[in-house]
């Protein structure tokens, strides 16, 4: 079918459609499009524009149908292809979007817009060679823009062509005719970016020279100073390096790396406590308010030197009442001498205090001095390397006696209960601590966390609700989800899982999974944004970080929870309805769980009802506040995870979490252990073997290894006929080397 | 505790610290927006002492300052703004907040030529007001009524950064004398320096960014929709 052409009037109208769309005036845009279509029902570009507007209004399916229709009418329209690509892009199908953009670009090679859209997607998808090509084309089209040069350099850099990246930046620099202003941030950052590329090529000498000449006026002073110190150190120019680190310490005497750099530059040997001390003592004297200069020596000092330094440090901290004193020192407990000495010093402090100021009490802050020492000892006896919970209780009670309203003291008391295994009392105690300072969200969060540990999901949510935004429809849960509150979602999910509510547990883990998807997509806008801002080093840092986003413990913890839950579901298919009652149900435990599950279901339903009522009561004007065309918030069609829990393929679902886990955290032994469990059930013996071997490499003494090895051997010999002989051979050979198999 | 510049990989735990400590929370993207617009200005206090349990452990963030430059200052004067600052309750009395602030202020002047830095603080937050006014020297400009979502008022405070500008100038003079070179350019920032030209040209209505609440970066930053033309 031949595409229709528009009259002048309608061609004008078509342009207004585009403008309306750009201005987000979707209703008007649609009206104008309809006007064109009335006379030209087969005008493909207008149909495409209509699709685009509908898509922006959230009517995805309708939009796709129309866009396809437009393409069947006019396969040769770049607008139709571009729109098709945009639809895919907004619906996160980036691969298809790239294909559509490429078609569009073939039809209209000079379109800057399409080229730009394609480029952004290519870098988002890490198609670096494609990105280089796109940025090359864009530079050719507009070489007068510095951004285009920088962008091509970035493309080469990410692709790994460092030399080319540097060349591009140099070529642009040479073309600059007037000296840039000293305050030209884009220029300053481009120079430092180039410097980082030189260093990345390993040519530190040249990097230093470039830094000292081209970058000496760069606006990011700290970066210049840090790079200089690092380069000098790497080049072995010790005297200058020491000077550079001293300059950094004068700027910030709280960064341990600077001290390490200085010590190395001074050539002080590791065990030379006296020389090391002298360095730190110098800065402790120069910057009396620096904590690092006083605390860091405790790491390397030993014997009497340690004792003296620790005594001085503890005295100062106790006098000031610094609550983190124990937290800041507990890493020293790996040394038995230090583990003995620190509490002894605290006791000493207490007895000296008792002797000196029994009369001088009065109105002083009782969290300082004696209270602080008692608090330190309570934490000492509560710590796993020095645990004596009876003594911990004794000290915390003494501290509380001294300062009955001290939140920190009560918090530690709650922790002691937790370690005694009394989660109910711990939660109660933490909530008491909360009540002592209701304006502090930190203690509020802790109280909620302890309630969750005690499986009190509803109570915890109510506690958190004291600080979440009251206006959010859907209440505290919706606000915490919106705000990507991972800790809560994880703890809440784990508590539901303990209570046997598989649905809600899975729901929370999937929510976390989705948040990580969002975090990955968050980088999208910055591919072009950062070019305009010119902060290229920060952009590269972002890209590198996003590449390993899911190695974050936030992800691995939730993913492991989910995988293990799916394994349980596979092993013991549930009887109950609604996803409630999973887990290992037997006997009394089972009825207990059922009861809990029933209660949980009721409560969840109640919460849902209340949320719905609350939403209904909202001011209708406010509820409709979302402007014409703004994406309407999608309604969750599975708020309680019933659909998730009803899965018939728990192992398949587990793979969604496991894949990323093994890809990004291969050195996490729990991930490998869980991977084995999934693969052996799926009869993927080679993959199971791979996990097992990885576990052994990480820790051959892990208690689960012998069992896994024995099971794999059993399974493989049972699967004799179904396995290809080659695979069986490999597995058996490998297993022979595994202990316990 | 190390005090150092924020890195992208710190951001999930900065967001975590913010959610634990304060009622004003933001999407991760809003932190990214700061980290990618003014990477020199935001600092963290991290606990690096505990040995990592896996190679993927991230150091615990016990305090942070999230700072920015005002994109289009109403008074036309380049200045910084503190979006969020908090220190874990367990790590107070070590002067962490003050140290974070001082690092940020210095970078505001050095990198962006800031003349002053502004912030909002709850009128009931005595500890924070003490830090800003008595320790750092901020002055209260005015009270903004019902600034926070829960209806509480905020003090608008600001600190003149002339003293840092002066220090910097002196240091530069000294350097020049030492090197015997002459200054290339001593001009004040002009034109679009430090600003985003595209944003300035944009015809979109200005969006008021409230510290009290997160907006998506999409709203804050730019129009990302492609134009099909």
Automatic annotation (TrEMBL), chain A:
TPR repeats lie at residues 78-111, 373-406. The keyword Methyltransferase does not apply. SUPFAM superfamilies: TPR-like. Keywords: Repeat, TPR repeat. It holds the Pfam family TPR_16. InterPro entries: NatA_aux_su, TPR-like_helical_dom_sf, TPR_rpt. The keyword Repeat applies. Gene3D superfamilies: 1.25.40.1010, 1.25.40.1040. Residues 602-640 have a biased composition (Basic and acidic residues). PANTHER family: N(ALPHA)-ACETYLTRANSFERASE 15_16, ISOFORM A (PTHR22767:SF2), N-TERMINAL ACETYLTRANSFERASE-RELATED (PTHR22767). This is Uncharacterized protein.
Automatic annotation (TrEMBL), chain B:
It holds the Pfam family Acetyltransf_1. Residues 170-205 are annotated as: Disordered. The lineage of its organism: Eukaryota, Fungi, Dikarya, Ascomycota, Pezizomycotina. Residues 170-180 have a biased composition (Basic and acidic residues). It comes from the Eukaryota. Transmembrane segments: none annotated. It comes from Remersonia thermophila. Residues 1-162 form the N-acetyltransferase domain. SUPFAM superfamilies: Acyl-CoA N-acyltransferases (Nat). Keywords: Acyltransferase, Transferase. Belongs to the acetyltransferase family. ARD1 subfamily. This is N-acetyltransferase domain-containing protein.
